[in-house]
Amino acid sequence: MRKLTIAIDGHASTGKSSIARGLALKYGYIYINSGSMYRAVTLFALENNLLELLDQNIDLFIEKLKNISINFKFNKNNLISEIFINDRNIEKEIGSLKVSNLVSRVAAIPKIRREMVKLQRNIDRNKGVVMDGRDIGSVVFPDADIKLFLTASDAVRANRRHKEMIKNGITVSLDDVLNNIQNRDELDSSRSDSPLIIDKDAKVIDNSNMSIEEQIDEISRLIEEKATN
Ligand code: C5P
């Protein structure tokens, strides 16, 4: 079968990463969670007291950003591609509400987006790639073989995300999670650089009432049809 590029975009907490990861494992593709990259930049800014630079001297911030490396390493034990800043695994830290509440502001800055898109396009696509995010089908890989746009009701998304955060040991209220995903959707959809849109070639999947397995089955049919034609 031909190796494909699969772009999965959509609203916050629609299970994009679970679907992308499941597909990557099933087909042996590389999986990149582009949201983790914007979260890593946000964590870097927070931990190094660089928030002011974001507004006042973005060029200096980008220079500092270029001194660190943001990369993924596959963890064979949990089958997750975990994100690192240099040699430090930051998978847990990037899930905090603090990072979640700031990330859309950071991700709206064009010079930061440019750096992230460069890294995302550096991936060797010959092995097959599944990337999830907000602008993957519209900006990063406009030539993707399959473009998906995931959505679900606000209540379903907030509940899923809340459960996941509690499972990861993060104490947070359902209301705060709901507010966060609604605010992020609003900021991500209204920014001027690479806003979250439904690309004209994207297939929209509302997964409010679908399991992960059902979605993987549906998308697998698209992949197998495309890859054998
Ligand atoms: O995917 P996740 O919800 O972790 O993404 C966190 C945030 O990163 C999004 O709300 C959005 O602001 C930003 N993002 C983006 N473009 C992407 C992926 C994520 O702007 N391709």
What class would the helix/strand composition place it in? alpha/beta
Q: Kindly report the name of the CATH homologous superfamily.
A: P-loop containing nucleotide triphosphate hydrolases
Helix and strand run? EHEHHHEEEHHEHEHHEH
Span between N and C termini? 9 Å
Unreliable stretches: none
Question: How many individual domains?
Answer: 1
Q: Which ligands, by name, code or SMILES, are bound?
A: cytidine-5'-monophosphate
Question: How many β-strands, per DSSP?
Answer: 8
Rg is 17 Å
Apparent shape? globular
Mean pLDDT: 96
Provide the CATH top-level class. Alpha Beta
CATH topology: Rossmann fold
Major β-sheet, in short? 5 strands, parallel
Tell me the strand percentage band. Answer: 15-25%
Structure explained in plain terms:
The chain is of the alpha/beta class and 229 residues long. The chain has one domain (5-227): Rossmann fold (3-Layer(aba) Sandwich). 51% of the residues lie in helices and 17% in strands. The protein is globular. The model has no long low-confidence stretch (mean pLDDT 96). Bound molecules: cytidine-5'-monophosphate (C5P). Cytidine-5'-monophosphate is lined by residues 12, 34-35, 38-39, 103-104, 107, 133-136, 184, 188.
